[in-house]
């Protein structure tokens, strides 16, 4: 009788191995996407709070005391809000960078549509928004959240100097 010397894998064994590898790859891809979304949310929160200290330094250096002024208009990198830059007099916060902060932050997933950072000031007060972070899966929180925006409860985070910017802008 002939004895068959078995070398290699059968077709069924190879298909099972490829199927398992494919399943693991799909699970890892889904988890990586979730981690990326959480990282973008954390970056947005950090970005809008990171401009508070430079804004206060700018305010203290001005005579008379004033924040970078946008004449009550919203400024942002997004073309719908002026298409401003990340530094200089045409920065989305004018004249803040590079003197008070090296460079103004920009949204980690700005597609040129709705996700962006916005700034508004009348020189006496300011408000900075992370506009539409929830389109990336960010949880906006509630009124106990330090970045809660009472004007845009479902689509923005904010930091501001005080009234009226915090509750009416």
Overview of this protein structure:
This protein is α+β, with helices and mostly antiparallel strands and 169 residues long. The chain has one domain. Helices cover 32% and strands 11% of the residues. The protein has three helices and four strands. The chain has helices spanning 11-50, 52-61, 165-168; strands at residues 75-76, 116-121, 126-131, 156-160. A four-stranded antiparallel β-sheet has the order 1-2-3-4, with helices on one face. The protein is elongated and about 105 Å long. The termini are far apart.
Number of domains: 1
Main sheet strand line-up:
1-2-3-4
Poorly predicted runs: none
Helix content: 25-40%
Taken from the alpha-carbon principal axes, the silhouette is elongated
Query: Biggest β-sheet, characterized?
Result: 4 strands, antiparallel
* Count of DSSP H/I helices: 3
Strand content: 5-15%
Q: In a few lines, what is going on in this structure?
A:
With 169 residues, the chain is of the alpha+beta class. It has three helices and four strands.
Which key phrases capture this entry?
single chain, 169 residues, alpha+beta, four-stranded antiparallel beta sheet, 3 helices
Write the layout of secondary structure elements.
Elements lengths: L10 H40 L1 H10 L13 E2 L39 E6 L4 E6 L24 E5 L4 H4 L1
């Amino acid at each position: 009788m002939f004895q068959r010397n078995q070398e290699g894998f059968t077709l069924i064994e190879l298909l099972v191995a490829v199927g398992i590898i494919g399943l693991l790859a799909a699970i890892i891809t889904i988890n990586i996407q979730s981690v990326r979304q959480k990282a973008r949310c954390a970056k947005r929160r950090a970005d809008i709070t990171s401009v508070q200290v430079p804004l206060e330094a700018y305010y203290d250096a001005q005579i008379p005391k004033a924040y970078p002024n946008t004449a009550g208009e919203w400024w942002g990198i997004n073309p719908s809000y002026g298409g401003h830059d990340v530094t200089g007099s045409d920065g989305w916060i004018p004249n803040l960078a590079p003197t008070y902060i090296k460079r103004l932050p920009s949204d980690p997933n700005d597609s040129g549509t709705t996700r962006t950072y916005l700034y508004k000031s009348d020189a006496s007060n300011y408000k900075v928004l992370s506009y539409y972070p929830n389109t990336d899966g960010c949880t906006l929180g509630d009124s106990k959240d330090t970045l809660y925006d009472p004007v845009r409860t479902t689509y923005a985070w904010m930091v501001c100097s005080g009234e009226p910017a915090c509750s009416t802008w």
